[in-house]
Amino acid sequence: MAVYRFRVTFEDNEEVYREIDIKSTQNFEDFHNVIVQSIGFDNLHDSSFYISDDYYRKGDEITLRPISDDEKELRALKKMPLKRQMNKCKMAALIDDPHQKFVYVYDLKTGWTFLVELLKIVPDDAKVNYPKCVKSIGESPKQYKANNLAAPAADEDDFDEEEEPHADDEAYASAHSEDETALLEGEEGEEEVAEEEETAEEDDFGASEFDDSDHFSEGKEDY
Q: Which of 85, 106, 143, 157 has the highest count of CB atoms within 10 angstroms of its CB?
């Protein structure tokens, strides 16, 4: 009985690959299961094999999930080739070339893609459980990538109300730099000093008038 040895390579990294032996009488679902196991991914997602040419251009599809009757009818109406189902398709049925190639896609939403090539036919070993990963080169990437990173927590000191500039002041709202803000603060400080000086002058003037009136009253009594 023939045993096929395939090399399964990550499309994005040719230095990470697995070599897998599988019997010609086993099916593509067996092949799918051993690939997922050998790369350390879970087996929770849909996947497909595609017959390909030497340039890994996708041809007919061999799918993991059963094909619905509606899809069968639609493909028949459009004269499209029917998809094969993995558990009903033996390996030998689709090996037409000594270096037969397939494209394997795991998790169709994420699109993990592997290039599969038949390396050679090896003798059957009665002591071996097939399919089997016989060589593992390189570390597989993590299946799930962290996309949601928590935003850094804001420092409470940054929101000290006492140090916060005048939020209701339109001039502060329109200031776009620290220099502009400092300038506005300087102008406000000058205005406050001017107001204080003006108030002091008024107070001095009022006091002097009061003193003059007192002297006038005293002079009148003397007269």
A: 106
